[in-house]
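pls design
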């Protein structure tokens, strides 16, 4: 696709996020299954439902723009998910595996936060306040998920993983 202006870049970046979210919909159940901490498992399951809503929001924006959501592969998300799969394949103690899963998930969240912040700024600049509001809603949820993962890591999971170093 030739990009001639910010609107074209906006659509292209939305396609990237759409693909990323759909890859995540497939990866989150595997992460939940690999988690041993019940709160972490629940966080992954809750975020799966939230991610499905993120996909719906993006579809709503594409409908408004009269653009197709498909046609772009998010190589960054593909790489982040591959790293997560690699971590899940390690022979690790349950607490260490959970700590590893949090690290992998936070890399994903930080990528999404950067992506959604960018497209929200584009939407605002283009005068598309409806899309900007929807994107901000998703951005807020991604930030909340990141904070929850940090809280789980710092309050219990990383501490339990560290106890194996005696």
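designed seq:
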């Amino acid at each position: 696709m030739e990009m001639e202006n910010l609107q074209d870049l906006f659509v292209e970046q939305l396609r990237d996020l759409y693909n990323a979210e759909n890859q995540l919909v497939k990866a989150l159940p595997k992460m939940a299954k690999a988690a041993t901490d019940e709160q972490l498992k629940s966080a992954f399951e809750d975020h799966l439902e939230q991610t499905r809503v993120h996909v719906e929001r993006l579809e709503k924006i594409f409908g408004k723009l009269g653009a197709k959501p498909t046609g772009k592969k998010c190589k960054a998300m593909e790489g982040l998910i591959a790293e997560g799969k690699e971590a899940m394949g390690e022979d690790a103690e349950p607490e260490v595996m959970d700590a590893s899963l949090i690290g992998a998930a936070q890399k994903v969240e930080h990528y999404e936060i950067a992506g959604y912040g960018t497209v929200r700024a584009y939407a605002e600049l283009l005068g598309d306040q409806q899309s900007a509001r929807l994107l901000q809603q998703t951005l807020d949820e991604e930030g909340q998920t990141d904070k929850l993962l940090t809280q789980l890591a710092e309050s219990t999971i990383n501490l339990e993983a560290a106890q194996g170093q005696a």
